[in-house]
From TrEMBL:
It comes from the Eukaryota. Keywords: Iron, Metal-binding, Oxidoreductase. This is Clavaminate synthase-like protein. SUPFAM superfamilies: Clavaminate synthase-like. InterPro entries: DIOX_N (IPR026992), IPNS-like_FE2OG_OXY (IPR044861), IPNS-like_sf (IPR027443), Iron_ascorbate_oxido_reductase (IPR050231), Oxoglu/Fe-dep_dioxygenase_dom (IPR005123). Residues 175-284 form the Fe2OG dioxygenase domain.
Length: 359
């Protein structure tokens, strides 16, 4: 489903969770009401829609690139697979990951391109990629990455201000000049053959700082605080679905929320189509310690002091170690048993995921 192909609309009778809609042009203009709404979204659920972002052209080009890449024969993709269990760069064949405590293999195909590799091209920093990716590094990937970075860096500048941090603090932990886990991810999931087809991506919190999701079909669900059922997030044309990741939760002493979410087959008629997604992850520099920035902000320091479990925010890991740890926990090659999987896969979830009512 690349580019601008038409697809069935999201069914009106399927319940959804209404995310706040943030207007990027108003944010850039310093509109106080829009800034307050952004902060509400970032601290209460950690998810929001973004409109008037100005990257629709780049997004469509990326979907077309995804179609070209996944159409390649296996022998032109598999040699570029992830290098190791903790790696998140390269090609991911179907069945690479497990999606539940039973060890069930995933059914999605993905291509993860490192932000570092895009910006350094033709130099290879982390990985090499199939011919379709290499040929479009400068014409397609770089414009998408640069505009996505600009959006997320602006979000971080707002967060600096609201958290009482010196301007540039959070951006300094996500420098494009330093090795980091920033990633462009293209994902393709097959049509759901049966109504009870398995989960595409298991319930989780995101590993990094900020996520920008572009999708045209439903499937994303969030677990809203205080609610015991999964709720769909309806894709809106021209809107990015944005969310906070674990790193910002740690840096802010829990003020910024990294919320549980998952991906299942789209509802009803949409389930009959391939589900394509495009994601941009801003992830901190590999050497950044994942702990609260209390020494730079009294707001964060106070939040940590009054947290029910203040010690949980100091991971004892760098961002690179956290990313490798969380990546490895998803790999089928690392699966041992249900209890080990649940313990190793855990992110910043503040509630038990098992037993939540299916919607």
């Amino acid at each position: 489903m690349p580019g601008l192909i038409k697809f069935p609309t999201f069914p009106a009778d399927v319940p959804t969770h209404p995310l706040l809609v943030i207007d990027y042009t108003l944010l850039k203009a310093g509109d106080h009401d829009e800034l307050d709404k952004f902060w509400k979204a970032a601290t209460e659920l950690g998810f929001w829609y973004l409109k008037n972002h100005g990257i629709d052209h780049e997004v469509n080009a990326m979907f077309d690139l995804g179609a070209q890449t996944f159409a390649l024969p296996a022998e032109e993709k598999v040699p570029y697979s992830y290098k190791g269990d903790g790696s998140s760069f390269g090609y991911k064949p179907i069945g690479t990951n497990v999606i539940d405590e039973k060890g069930t293999r995933d059914t999605t195909e993905a291509m993860d391109v490192a932000q570092d590799d895009v910006l350094a091209y033709p130099k290879s920093v982390h990985h090499t990629y199939p011919v379709t990716v290499r040929e479009n590094m400068n014409s397609v990937l770089r414009p998408f990455v640069e505009k996505s970075m600009e959006i997320n860096m602006y979000f971080l500048s707002i967060m600096d201000d609201r958290l009482g941090l010196p301007q540039g603090t959070l951006a300094g932990l996500n420098k494009p000049e330093e090795p980091n886990g920033g990633t462009v991810r293209l994902i393709r999931a097959a049509p759901a053959i049966t109504p009870n087809a398995q989960t595409f991506v298991t319930a989780h919190t995101d590993f990094g700082a900020l996520t920008l999701l572009h999708n045209r079909l439903g499937g994303l669900q969030v677990l809203v605080p205080g609610v015991e059922t999964w709720q769909y997030v309806k894709p809106l044309e021209g809107h990015i679905i944005c969310n906070i990741g674990d790193a910002l939760h740690f840096f802010s002493g829990g003020i910024l929320r990294s919320n549980i979410h998952r991906v299942i087959p789209p509802p009803k008629e949409q389930a009959k189509l391939e589900r394509w997604s495009l994601v941009f992850f801003t992830r901190p520099n590999f050497n950044a310690p994942l702990r609260p920035l209390s020494q730079h902000s009294t707001i964060i320091a106070n939040a940590v002091v009054h947290a029910p479990n203040p010690g949980k925010f100091d991971t004892g890991m760098t961002a690179g170690e956290w990313l490798a740890h969380r990546n490895a926990a998803t790999r089928a090659t690392k699966y041992k048993d249900p209890s080990t999987w649940k313990a190793s896969f855990k992110g910043t979830e503040d509630r038990e995921i098992l037993g939540v009512v299916e919607n």
